Amino acid sequence: GEDVEQSLFLSVREGDSSVINCTYTDSSSTYLYWYKQEPGAGLQLLTYIFSNMDMKQDQRLTVLLNKKDKHLSLRIADTQTGDSAIYFCAESEGRSGNTGKLIFGQGTTLQVKP
Amino acid sequence: ETGVTQTPRHLVMGMTNKKSLKCEQHLGHNAMYWYKQSAKKPLELMFVYSLEERVENNSVPSRFSPECPNSSHLFLHLHTLQPEDSALYLCASSQGQGVFAEAFFGQGTRLTVV
């Protein structure tokens, strides 16, 4: 079955770049996503990338997709303490682009130290 | 505020109790979902409703019973739960199923079964 894996924890200093990595198994996924979950809150869609793209940049966020290796990464430039949260990688199930039917990784806890 | 409201935010129940979780969305979406988020595990999709019909049930035990009386409301009825059912239950909604549609999540109900 489909599987999404992430490292569980990342700690960086404020102002540094953070890179969160993810591997997935379903090569037919149309979209891949990054969600953010702050303490006590639900999930918030941060960004997404269409499967025929290699890179997407959105302000401080850069998403890189390596389809051959089924590897997705999220780079946060100039990381701030407000970026401390759990970041989830997710793939859409099959060819559906509907973000409701997603397969999530375990989440990477990002700790930003002042 | 994401437009998806879940109540209660916290719930403690005994194994013989019956309780219900409520989700309400004011976004005009036509699909709603229940996810389970357990510690150190990926989010698990439990149920999918589209146009008020259940279209997916991911092998969820019968002690969880969903109900979608209209497109704005989704319930999860709970009875005779087990301690391992303690988790954060997240509701989400989206517009559409076959094309890209961002899912909006509620803040979740933190359930503790004692």
Structural class of chain B: mainly beta
Task: Name the poorly predicted regions of chain A.
Answer: none
What is the terminal separation of chain B in angstroms?
31 Å
Average pLDDT rating of chain A: 88
Summarize the structure.
Chain A contains no helices and 11 strands. Chain A is mainly beta and 114 residues long.
Summarize the structure in words.
- The complex is a heterodimer of chains A (114) and B (114).
- Chain A has 114 residues and is mainly beta.
- Chain A is 0% helix and 55% strand.
- Chain A contains no helices and eleven strands.
- Chain A has strands at 4-6, 9-13, 18-24, 31-37, 43-50, 55-58, 61-66, 71-76, 85-92, 102-104, 108-113.
- In chain A, strands 2, 4, 5, 9, 10 and 11 form a six-stranded mixed β-sheet that branches. In chain A, strands 1-3-8-7-6 form a five-stranded antiparallel β-sheet, with no helix packed on it.
- The model of chain A has no long low-confidence stretch (mean pLDDT 88).
- With 114 residues, chain B is mostly beta strands.
- Chain B has strands at residues 4-7, 10-13, 18-25, 31-37, 44-50, 53-57, 64-70, 73-79, 87-94, 104-105, 109-113.
- In chain B, the strands form two sheets. In chain B, strands 2, 4, 5, 6, 9, 10 and 11 form a seven-stranded mixed β-sheet that branches. A four-stranded antiparallel β-sheet of chain B has the order 1-3-8-7, with no helix packed on it.
- Chain B is globular, with a radius of gyration of 13 Å.
- The interface between A and B is medium-sized, with 24 and 28 residues.
